[in-house]
């Protein structure tokens, strides 16, 4: 089985970290392709960044279909481009926010999300709602750490994230914590150990969920909203995205 | 006051029709710029098309800020790129699905949406929910007419749409009908007359809502999720979208 | 266009203040009639007051229909008599709570309401829910200031309201604030400036929304729940309200 | 124990019928006062009628407090004036829609409401939601029979109502039926027998719920939204409703 | 009328206390049978305990049907076995959480639950939701007192519970408090007096609601999900529970 | 990895069928223990049956912990005993209704459940809601086939189920179908092929989800509502279930 894990931003060090987490999580015999798009923002911190990242994700899924990928993980906690990716893919596609929330809802009574900039709260709330998790989500705690600080060795980002996770457990009645950024995917074991409760990395969870679905022969249903995109003309610089 | 009405697809005949509806709706002294993006799909029928259209919308809003636009209407009933556009714009931005639903909720007890392809039902449902309109929406009726059929003279598209609107009133307890596509913006008066109940074109409603907000001095709030995009590098062909 | 702005209580100084706000907000050529009912409470602080105010509102809308009014604004943040007024009116009717919430949902990601007595919290919650705004409302902050204190020159009411608005922005993740009483309609510009985020006065928003709807030719739909009241006998002192 | 059952319209024959149902339902030793207001509409078919009926209800509750009533039932299926009545009453107040829905939710998995004019659907939906019964309500079936037809001997109103109740059970997965009008309060036993499932008359249920609450020493809580109305001036013909 | 009040745990002192509360609440002429199951946990503090308690409850309802009981109260605030008991019983069955929430929603605008161990929060939240009370429930406050501490004379359990009830009123905008454990059923009058707002014991409320329903001739509807259990074989030690 | 799949009823032929489906779904190296409880009903068709089945499930999970099981699947579409099983288990536990719904929500826009007796509709609705799937569930279609008919060779049960699945796709806008009974676990491939859309067997999905969670090192969180049962006395025939 070949799973493509797409880091929707273009920061290679984060793509590598994500790829490592994905490989650690994958079952024996599962091949992980960890990529970033060829174009787009170096980090995703708002809806503007996300709109461009979505196109990058689509581009990688189109390429993945040609490469024979069996499924996809979108490794940004805003799940950019998820619905469009599902239209393109035959196999399953999961976003890491989606994967983490589904996993949490199977092992606990309520989760908290710990993430980066306050300005992304709206996106998280939106996803919690879109996935039907509003009665499971105990809190969303933003640390106000810029995404790329996670890539800076020696920054206090990890310590601050762990502190916030601890509060989620002790103050918000959460019994597990979601690591709310692809760039935190190396922290699952460490945070879990520190807080004495499950910490869930969506990249790891996403890989395993895609394995599970593809292993059952379940691809994306093409009967309604995720049917393949219709053939039509695309103008200007997006001309190459026209499908036939 | 200068309002930019963005038809997110690249079909010029539809942009013209939308521009006419916008001008008909606008107050005296309001200037309407009706545009389509320079790149993207000729029609929007699914999430794939929508992802590219969103970039086209953003491009036009960026340009509009330089042109001194006071507000924006996104003239596709999926409201593509709305959150990103709000990050970029100082003034208000409304989508036509959003505008039509808000207007309907102020003049009736329940509305139906009449729109095009069945595959877009998911998007409509999602918007109904995102806008808090789930207790107002009586039904979503898809005619399964391709969007561009609206541009073909002599097609039976209008007749089929009107028939569906009639059913919404008589069978679904709706008391007004939303025209669920930018390409229907010339039908507001005719449908209203035929069904004996308000039919709402989102383009017209959108122009008037933007006028109302801008006239009150209300622009998009920059304090939380719609704060201006952060300065950062963008790679590859999207390099020109990097903001400073 | 002639819009009647009804202050549902009988305090004339508040009616004047509301009329001024309405005129400030109105487009050129729009005539504002600012009135209070001939009977009813001097302020509305609970459901008892509201029930009487509703009759006063209806009385003014009946009169307004005879006066050729094109639309109505109900200028109390509990929107008393709204559904009944819609049955009577041909044109659009909006309440100021409704108007403020709709406006806020178009320019921000979440609002807080700042209002008067704690006992009215229930009413505000009810309206938030009735209008589908439960996912937009960040908080309801009651200052416990009696409504008529807003009419006392030199009171600290304004200062306390502004302090509460500040907290809504800084503590509740709100990005705009709704002024939760008709008597605050003179504060929109001042509060906005002080808190650095949009403050919305429902009177101003209501006038503009009625203009927008009436300008589009949209009156209240008469096909379902807002159909004209049925002709029937009314007994006793309400005999004059019987319609034929 | 003395319970006042208020028929909010002024049709005496209906008040008598309601009084009989209330007496049939009441426990031994409970005194029923069945009254109509001195002023207001002869039937309640819309929000306009309801606004005036609410004042009539309040008037009767004010009088009831002086008469030593221990609780109140508001015998119209729109529960007009309920919140205001609670502000005035020391004892419990229940509406018949509320009573019927609560009773149904304790004995079945889902109910249907069978009621009169289509135009009142909006009000029923609103109450279903306000009382948290949206997951219990299987359907609302309006017969489009005018309320006062229930008072005409020899009309086919009863037959049509029973037919609709039967459909609710056989087509909508309901396991009990709510009689959606005070004027149906004589039908509980007959409908039950005909459909082979519980039919609930809100007047009967309301009397028993008030007995239950008052018997436990539970009156309306005065700590928040149902606190006694504040003393204040009332102008014009409502002057006599000013409380001190 | 004969009502069986089932304390689902096997602690006799608690059963006696519950029986006393039930008898205090019951109308003249109503016979109360207060029992505990013959098997099961001495207290119910989690879903494991609850699963066994449910079987004990069913056992007592089966026996009650033979004994001619007219209705049942399940006297644990998790309402264990409620749906199954309804399948078995001809008359009405109410749980004390359900009874308390319904009573509270008829006399106030919002309630708080004050209960025992933090680990039971999930169960309470689940019931609040199942009963449609999510917009009425202001807070759930767990004292972290083990259930059986309520049976220890001289413990500080009562004092701590009262303190928490006070906070519910003063901090959470609640206007009544639900006593969230069958073992608190002796505290209704005392807590009410101390906090100056209604405190509701579900045992008392449950008895009165069963009286009300049974008095109206309303038993559990057998038309859908509460139809009598089907005749079938039961294996092993549960063989005696097979119905014919 | 060792996964115990518990058929909560005692019909061995169904347990075997479930075991086969589980083994077909399991990854290489995963050991499946397929069992039924030693006591309880031969089929689960209502809440009464479910209450006893829950004890049977718990008994098997207790035994499974001693046997070194890494996770559990509860193979009845009502997910009986799920919360209690989670308290007992260190590893993950999933119900087949839960598993099927989560899988469906990752590959489609809306699912329908096709299941057995009408009387179980209430349970399905309850689970749909408990799992946050109310916006994903297009319909619940009950075939009114008794569960054990699935074990009768030559019955028309399969044909009727497939017919219903087809309707779910063609009439309800569903894009995948959930097989709503453990006894349908042999039908996944056949139904999928016949309807041209994914059909999901919860047993298969459950095994893969448990594998995914356990493979990530995620067991049931013990920090809140799923903490291990407390040590306490159990009386009577349940004495052996007391934990220390």
UniProtKB/TrEMBL annotation, chains A, B, C, D, E, F:
<protein>
    <recommendedName>
        <fullName>Hydantoin racemase</fullName>
        <ecNumber>5.1.99.5</ecNumber>
    </recommendedName>
</protein>
<comment type="similarity">
    <text>Belongs to the HyuE racemase family.</text>
</comment>
<dbReference type="InterPro" id="IPR052186">
    <property type="entry name" value="Hydantoin_racemase-like"/>
</dbReference>
<dbReference type="InterPro" id="IPR015942">
    <property type="entry name" value="Asp/Glu/hydantoin_racemase"/>
</dbReference>
<dbReference type="GO" id="GO:0047661">
    <property type="term" value="F:amino-acid racemase activity"/>
</dbReference>
<dbReference type="GO" id="GO:0036348">
    <property type="term" value="F:hydantoin racemase activity"/>
</dbReference>
<dbReference type="Pfam" id="PF01177">
    <property type="entry name" value="Asp_Glu_race"/>
</dbReference>
<dbReference type="InterPro" id="IPR053714">
    <property type="entry name" value="Iso_Racemase_Enz_sf"/>
</dbReference>
